[in-house]
Design goal:
Elements lengths: L1 H53 L4 H31 L5 E5 H15 L4 E6 L3 E5 H17 L6 E7 L2 E6 L6 H4 L19 H11 L3 E7 L3 E7 L4
Length: 234
């Protein structure tokens, strides 16, 4: 009797799990196909906007094309993130060798289009690392985005890369010791008037832990915040 009940349980479980597995498989296939189909129109818009820009000389038209290029860059970023998510879900290899200083410049160029009033002060040394390039790019985006949001009265952000250490410093409202203890909590925001859900730094912490990146914060109220990332040397 016990054996029959066990077999019945296994059979029922299989009936419920198999459709779910098939659904997940079909969803993954659809995501990959959709991603592939998105690549061509994005590339076409970017290429043709560049060509149009070369043929224009009036300021209004150039500004309009520049806005199209910015929007395409944002779409390209979402494309890269979707591709990254699919690879991580299917456990594909996402690490590669690259120059961290180049990645920082790329991310700042992308963010500069969103926050043109911010002045980024660079001091970057060429630094070769082996890491998850797209995931690390999202981490840098989150840190800089926080720096901008909490620096309403100062538009300077200092970014320094030297000896496998990256520091991103703002001159904003800063945090006290109590706030620093809470920054990695999901949905926590030191300023309730800020937009967003406060999940960025918890994601940053999880990524750094998974990649053996030492993450630390230095902050003082009304002085600013410095985020430090220390990478392993190859």
């Amino acid at each position: 009797m016990l054996c029959f009940i066990t077999l019945a349980g296994v059979f029922i479980s299989k009936l419920s799990v198999d459709p779910l597995q098939e659904y997940v498989k079909n969803l993954n296939n659809l995501s990959k196909e959709t991603l592939h189909e998105l690549n061509l129109p994005i590339s076409t818009i970017i290429t043709n906007s560049h060509l149009l820009k070369k043929q224009m000389d009036d300021e209004k038209s150039l500004k309009r094309v520049s806005r199209i290029e910015t929007a395409c860059s944002m779409l390209q970023q979402r494309y890269n993130e979707l591709d990254y998510m699919i690879k991580t879900q299917t456990r594909q290899e996402t690490t590669q060798d690259f120059d961290l200083s180049q990645l920082i410049k790329e991310r700042v160029e992308f963010i500069q289009a969103i926050y043109p009033h911010i002045k980024f002060n660079f001091k970057l040394s060429s630094t070769q690392i082996t890491n998850d390039r797209i995931g690390l790019g999202k981490v840098i985006d989150n840190i800089i985005d926080n720096s901008v949001k909490y620096s309403k009265n100062n538009n300077d952000i200092d970014i320094k890369l030297d000896n496998h250490s990256l520091s991103i410093k703002d001159y904003g409202c800063g945090m006290d010791e109590v706030e620093l203890l809470k920054i990695f909590d999901n949905y926590y925001q030191s300023n309730e008037n800020m937009k967003g859900f406060g999940i960025g730094l918890s994601m940053v912490k999880r990524f750094c832990d998974s990649q053996d990146i030492l993450l630390s914060f230095k902050s003082k109220p009304n002085v600013g915040t410095t985020v430090l990332l220390k990478f392993k040397e190859n």
